[in-house]
Amino acid sequence: MRDADAVIVGAGAAGLSLAHRLCAPSTGPGPRVVLVEAPPGPRTPPERTWCYWEAPGGAFDGALTASWERLRVHGPGGAATVGNPAPFRYKMLRSRAFEALVGARLSAQDTVVRVEATVESVRDVPEGAEVRGRDTAGRPVLLRARWAFDSRPAGCLPPARTTLRQHFRGWFVHTRRPAFDPATADLMDFRTPQPGHGLSFGYVLPLSDRAALVEYTEFSRRIADTAAYERALRHYTEQVLRLGAFHVTGTEQGAIPMTDGHFPRRAGRAVFRIGTAGGATRPSTGYTFAAVQRQSALIAAALLAGRAPVPPPAHSPWHRALDAVLLRALDSGRVDGAEFFTGLFRTVPTARLLRFLDGRSRLWEDLTIGLHTPVLPMLRTVAELPLLPRRAALW
């Protein structure tokens, strides 16, 4: 006997977004959904920040921490390029605000059951899918559904020709004097010392003229330790931004896979992977939230229409191929990452570039953007890719 039409494992961005879509108002009774979330403890992720761009009036605007009408990029020499992303705005959403907003909507639905459990297995069974785990008291939990959607990361990344990581640490700072422009977000600031491999940049999201999230980010093969991030942040805030006196009100730290490996979206006949585990992260940028929304909407539409809700590719084969070329060019050192991204923001209209970074640009736009990249090194990388072996890496 089934407990539900769908079991969703994980209550992060992907799990909550899919639950929200499945419970949206419809003309008929909605599906029965069980949302399984980890109990409070080491498996519960700390609060996170998600950023994305869209026109004003989005579904989660009521929960935004801030949004910006201008984006700025600083080149390695300090020259600034300021772009207007209209019709988009760059938006910042904190995970707890998102959880509260979606949680309130789910609590109003009698078709949704939320369960706290540590999931041990998700597998096919003859009548659908089965989820096994243990509750906070250690008692067994068994759930059955027609479909299961698993957002947990696997232990290993898929075999890939290139695997980098976008890893970062951020400080929420409050300064003694006005130090930020609340209308302008610094998307990439390459005035940071560049590592021997990969690239680094600062990232500044102002919350007021005296408060901001200031992050130090690297694209590289290996994750740094906390002490190294702290040294980099201290240098960036004191020597580059020259913030003067400030105090740190909070921190965040994380790592995002940047890989041309193929994330399988199907783990069984009735078991699917969603979110980063299902390939929603854009390999060349690390942005995930907007792709999760598109993926969730299409899964929900299929399930509500009675079709097999196989998660669609979050990014087209064409854009994944472009990402594979860029990742290899950065990893090999054939392209200087700081100069590459600075040049794109300096020469390509901001809204067009954002569409490309989100995987929603058209072919002619991609071709015009390609003309603003180092063409010969990129073509050499295109020729090299088919010869490279694919290797697995730890998540």
From TrEMBL:
It comes from Streptomyces auratus AGR0001. This is Lycopene cyclase. The lineage of its organism: Bacteria, Bacillati, Actinomycetota, Actinomycetes, Kitasatosporales. Pfam families: Lycopene_cycl.
